[in-house]
Amino acid sequence: MSTSILDTGIKVVRNVSGFTVGRGSLDRLPEFVDARRSLVGNNAKVVYLVDGYFRSRPDIVQRLKARATDVVRFVDVVDEPTTDGIDAITDDIRRAVGGIPATIVGFGGGTTMDTAKAVANLLTNPGNAADYQGWDLVKVPGVHKIAVPTISGTGAEATRTCVMTNTKSGLKLGMNSDYTVYDQMVLDPDLTATVPRNQYFYTGMDAYIHCVEALAGSYRNAVGDAYSRETVNLCRQVFLGDDMMHDDARERLMVASYLGGCAIATSYVGVVHPFSAGLSVVLGLHHCVANCIALNALEEFYPAEHAEFRSMLEKQNVELPSGVCAGLSDDQFARLVASTVVHAKPLTNALGPNFREVLTDERVVDIFRRM
Ligand code: NAD
Ligand code: ZN
């Protein structure tokens, strides 16, 4: 049976409507913001959610040109977003703005960009963050929002989700909605120069891992494949090159992150992300480092990608945490298994509908023990 190369099985895909890219492009952000103010009223406030690192960089914060009446909040990235945390930030913003802001600027990594996405949706929709964990539950368009990534890899600047852990149930699931997609984006690679090297590698690898998983899967389409192939291509140039943090490399990785985000919106991940989710949910490891630890233990499913990943680690002289599952209890292993195999869609994409015949409890535990 032959299917069209455009037979995606994926519904209509929304992209970020406009963006600027290049070194120094941060200086165009005030233009984007002013355009919004002139549309909704010159007195409207603007909200800036800024990664906590930039507390130490008044030179950069000052380039945002926020007015004294605007609302600037620093987001401390100790934990990744939780539903309760998002609700608290939303309440604070609601009080500080006293209405609907002209736009929300999400300035930071995946954590800050996802926080801004969630807050933008909650300001126009009733209820709490937990009410919208799932697919297409957001009914009213959110507040206009602009992404300014300061670390590259997750693709959060381009995707239709914002990942949050439910404080009560532990469920890690985003608000998957067309309304979650950013309206505008400023891609300025100068901003990523200060990211610590290990963090830069782990987050950058998220783009690579999403796309090698997508390309190895069975739910494929020509658009997703095109985005994925170019993302992997750029990641190879960055991580197999001499210095992954050279000006040129940072620019390439910023583009890879964006294209990788577009790839996720049109395809599915595979075996690595479910194992990574287990590590995040049970052990609290952050998404990107957890992905690297997972891929490092999944050679049997991704032999070529695993070998390439090992060369990248070595070339960039990056350390990976080891022994993360040493000394865990049977109960913790059982929870690791449960929070991995629950991801039926990506596991089916990678291994077929009978993935549990391949990923038995024993085999999953054995893989975790190797991490
Ligand atoms: P992050 O936002 O968690 O930040 C990581 C660290 O880098 C933080 O300490 C931060 O302060 C620091 N940092 C950021 N920019 C910096 C800079 N320019 N200089 C110095 N330090 C800087 O990092 P991340 O890996 O981009 O994001 C992870 C989050 O993204 C997770 O919550 C994950 O669930 C989410 N995610 C979302 C999507 C999506 O589609 N929405 C996809 C993948 C991952
Ligand atoms: Zn990811």
Topology at a glance:
Elements: E1 18-21, H1 29-40, E2 46-51, H2 58-61, E3 71-75, H3 83-97, E4 103-108, H4 110-124, E5 134-135, E6 145-149, E7 175-176, E8 184-187, H5 197-216, H6 222-239, H7 247-265, H8 272-283, H9 287-296, H10 303-316, H11 330-341, H12 344-351, H13 355-358, H14 361-369
Parallel strand pairs: 1-8, 2-3, 2-4, 4-6, 5-7, 6-8
Helix pairs in contact: 3-4, 5-6, 5-7, 5-9, 6-7, 8-9, 8-11, 11-14
Bound molecules: nicotinamide-adenine-dinucleotide and zinc ion (ZN).
Q: Which terms summarize this structure?
A:
single chain; 371 residues; alpha/beta; six-stranded parallel beta sheet; 14 helices; 9% strand; binds nicotinamide-adenine-dinucleotide; binds zinc ion
Number of continuous helical runs: 14
Assign an overall shape. globular
Classification by helices and strands: alpha/beta
> In terms of quaternary structure, what is this?
single chain
Strand order in the sheet with the most strands: 1-8-6-4-2-3
Arithmetic mean pLDDT: 95
Low-pLDDT sequence parts = 1-8
Tell me what portion of residues adopts beta-strand conformation: 5-15%
- Topology as H/E string? EHEHEHEHEEEEHHHHHHHHHH
- What small molecules are bound in this structure? nicotinamide-adenine-dinucleotide, zinc ion
Rg, rounded, reads 20 Å
Report on the structure:
Helix 5 (197-216) packs antiparallel against helix 6, helix 5 (197-216) packs parallel to helix 7 and helix 6 runs antiparallel to helix 7. Strand 2 (46-51), helix 2 (58-61) and strand 3 form a beta-alpha-beta unit. With 371 residues, this protein is α/β, with parallel strands linked by helices. The protein has helices spanning 29-40, 58-61, 83-97, 110-124, 197-216, 222-239, 247-265, 272-283, 287-296, 303-316, 330-341, 344-351, 355-358, 361-369, and strands spanning 18-21, 46-51, 71-75, 103-108, 134-135, 145-149, 175-176, 184-187. It is built from 14 helices and eight strands. Helix content is 46%, strand content 9%. Strands 1-8-6-4-2-3 form a six-stranded parallel sheet, with helices on both faces. The protein has a two-stranded parallel ribbon with strand order 5-7. It binds nicotinamide-adenine-dinucleotide and zinc ion (ZN). Nicotinamide-adenine-dinucleotide (NAD) binds at residues 51-53, 77, 80-81, 108-112, 114, 150-151, 153-156, 159, 161-163, 191-192, 194-195, 199, 203, 206, 287-288.
